[in-house]
Design brief:
Layout (H helix, E strand, L loop, with lengths): L1 H21 L6 H20 L7 H18 L2 H9 L8 E5 L4 H11 L3 H11 L5 H10 L5 H9 L18 E5 L2 H7 L35 H10 L34 H12 L6 E4 L13 E8 L2 E7 L3 E8 L8 E6 L10 E7 L2 E6 L3 E8 L8 E2 L11 E2 L15 E7 L8 E5 L7 E6 L12 E2 L3 H8 L13 E13 L6 E11 L4 E8 L10 E7 L12 E7 L5 E7 L3 E7 L3 E4 L2 E5 L7 E6 L4 E2 L6
Parallel strand pairs: 3-7, 15-17
Antiparallel strand pairs: 1-2, 4-5, 5-6, 6-7, 8-9, 9-12, 10-11, 10-13, 13-14, 14-15, 15-16, 17-18, 18-19, 19-20, 21-22, 22-25, 23-24, 23-26, 26-27
Helix pairs in contact: 1-2, 1-3, 1-6, 2-3, 6-7, 6-8, 7-8
Length: 627
């Protein structure tokens, strides 16, 4: 019961947003706000009596969608009777989410044309960050009649999923307007005019008035929930792993990190950090990776670090889903406090290998995991250059590492791309060396590499990007990492999906697809062509891009791309290459075709051909759009 209530409190804004988006578009916004809150609150009662094997949040999400979709299947008087019972009651005011811009309005209108299941699918893809298969599974469990068709309709909406984070679709942040005051005065002479009572059960509804600043957190309703919140802010209740826990567990993630730092026992500091997390003042600089909730802790978090670093005092917490970093001026005097949130759900040995503890003067200090035995820095633009030893203090903090692009003009790569190379301890079975890069979030990004396919060998999985072949390939992709700053990226895999021989004995070229996956789910794929003679560290020729799709992931294992290429002799060719299951490539608008995975035909400069490929399964494959 406590886990389900904690999950509801923690994820309440997401659940209410899901309900709001899935409810019938014909329902007025005021009633949709109330129904969405009612649905989210009633889901707890159903989950408490269920025997499902899913986690509490998955059960709550399924129940919220089931109720919201059921609303759409009712009509008229029947639906009114169903939705009145148990709703938060509001007297004297009308509620509606904040108005968005033209893009949000266009998306709202597009969603209004879809059936409820398709709107729910769009929310699962956007708010939850699920892939298409996972969205279909959730919809099926929630009772949708055609999950596949609903997801297909949602995918066809040409809009950015990130718009769902806007206030236009947030029923937890609302504007308040009066109803018909004269009519209400006539009907209620007892003096109830102007009273607005919003009962939201576990969490108070956050109300924003025009020109005002909303308080970021509500209050718990039940005594048990209030006690849980008080305990979550008690420094004596903080979870702390044993110093050697990582040597005896099969779960190497943040749960195995001990509490470190010279102020890990400073109760005054920890109390202040927890209080600021729960209710930051207006002067606190609050940052969060996209999609990361900024909610207060609902149970005692785990303490990872508390100590003085450079000119700051830093505290880092982990609550099972997020890293939360609190920073203040060293000694507590002067300066502005900062609070940073980052998603790290399902972190593992590599993605929990380090966190950013401090940035100052273009340098980054990292806090390494207890299973890290050694550290180096290397320049990703110079693959032939060996790494340089990096000192790691006894508490796991590293010496400063130059931030990639520091001192360079905005939008440029600069002359180097420093990365962190870590070596895991021999005390764990899975010994490895791994690369991490700082892209502006608390959690550094894990870099991996997938080599080209080998005939007769099954498709290869991503591996650590520390080998010679991986470093040479990454040298041509490093500069594009800057486009991912601050996006909550978990890992980037550089996949060399084809290596082809060029016409006129001009050597061989590499075709790569760099797949960036975020902690919240969506990712981005970028294809490039790297001909021979390109200097180490120079980027290849862009050949396509997909945003928020599955290309070049384990759910999109086939890719094809084409470019126009000029030979050393000055002749122009149309080139195309595909991944391992491509059996033929053709070009329309310019009659050409080839069996196999590679196409190379003479073509006039500026030729614009439409490429397609046929897979071994008979399916058709098109290049990424390049948008």
């Amino acid at each position: 019961m406590a886990e389900a209530e904690a999950a509801l409190i923690e994820h309440y804004p997401r659940l209410v947003r899901l309900a709001y988006l899935a409810l019938p578009a014909t329902t007025g916004r005021h009633r949709r706000v109330l129904i969405a809150h009612g649905v989210a609150q009633r889901s707890l009662r159903v989950v408490l009596t269920s025997q499902g094997g899913e986690g509490p949040y998955a059960q709550l999400r399924r129940e919220v969608l089931r109720q919201a979709l059921a609303q759409g299947r009712q009509s008229g008087r029947v639906r009114s009777a169903l939705t009145v019972a148990g709703l938060p009651q509001v007297v004297g005011v009308r509620l509606h989410p904040q108005a968005g811009g033209s893009a949000e309005l266009a998306l709202d209108r597009a969603l209004a044309t879809l059936p409820g299941a398709a709107r729910a699918a769009y929310a699962l893809l956007g708010v939850e960050g699920l892939d298409e298969q996972a969205a279909r599974d959730v919809l099926a469990a929630a009772g949708a009649t055609d999950p596949r068709g609903a997801v297909r309709a949602a995918v066809d909406i040409e809009s950015d999923h990130h718009l769902l984070a806007a206030g236009e679709f947030d029923p937890c942040m609302v504007h308040v307007r009066p109803t018909d005051l004269l009519r209400r005065r006539q009907r209620a002479k007892a003096g109830l005019a102007g009273l607005a009572a919003v009962a939201v059960g576990a969490v108070l509804l956050v109300v924003s008035t025009s020109g005002g600043s909303p308080e970021p957190y509500g209050a718990a309703g039940s005594p048990d929930a209030a006690a849980a919140v008080a305990k979550a802010l008690d420094p004596d209740a903080l979870v702390q792993a044993r110093p050697q826990a990582w040597t005896t567990t099969a779960r190497l993630d943040f749960t195995a990190w001990p509490a470190r730092g010279n102020r890990a026992t400073d109760r005054t500091l920890l109390t202040r950090a927890l209080a600021v997390w729960a209710n930051p003042a207006a002067s606190v600089q609050v940052n969060a990776t996209p999609g990361t909730p900024r909610t207060a802790p609902v149970q005692p978090p785990q303490l990872l670090y508390a100590g003085d670093v450079d000119s700051a005092t830093v505290v880092i917490f982990y609550d099972g889903l997020r890293l939360v970093r609190y920073a203040q001026a060293r000694g507590g005097g002067g300066g502005v406090a900062a609070l940073d949130f980052a998603q790290v759900a399902d972190a593992d040995l590599t993605t929990a290998a380090a966190v950013v503890i401090d940035r100052v003067d273009g340098n980054t200090r990292f806090l390494t995991a207890p299973w890290i035995a050694g550290a180096e820095t290397r320049d990703l633009l110079r693959p032939e250059q060996p790494g340089a030893a990096l000192r790691v203090a006894a508490d796991g903090t590293t010496d400063p590492v130059r931030m990639p692009g520091a001192g360079s003009a905005a939008g440029t790569c600069g002359t180097d791309w420093p990365v962190l190379q870590l070596r895991t301890s021999t005390r764990i079975v899975e010994k490895r060396s791994l690369l991490l890069t700082d892209l502006g979030d608390i959690s550094p990004v894990h870099l991996t590499f997938t080599p080209p396919p080998v005939p007769g060998v099954d498709a290869r999985a991503p591996r650590e990007a520390t080998g010679a072949q991986a470093l040479v390939s990454w040298a041509h992709s490093a500069c594009r990492l800057g486009e991912l700053r601050g996006q909550g990226v978990r890992s980037v895999n550089d996949w060399e999906f084809a290596h082809t021989v060029l016409p006129e004995s001009a050597g061989s070229a590499a075709w790569t697809c760099d797949r960036a996956d975020t902690w919240r789910g969506p990712g981005r794929a970028t294809v490039q062509f790297v001909p021979p003679g390109v200097a180490a560290g120079a980027p290849g020729t862009p050949a396509g891009q997909q945003v928020d799709g599955s290309a070049c992931s384990r759910f999109g294992q086939q890719v094809m791309a084409g470019v126009m290429w000029q030979s050393p002799a000055g002749n122009w060719y149309l080139l195309a290459a595909g991944s391992r299951d491509v059996v033929s490539i053709s070009a329309s608008g310019f009659t050409a075709g080839a069996s196999g995975r590679f196409l190379a035909v003479p073509a006039p400069r500026g030729t614009r051909a439409t490429l397609s490929a046929r897979l071994r399964s008979g399916a058709t494959l098109h290049p990424l759009s390049g948008d």
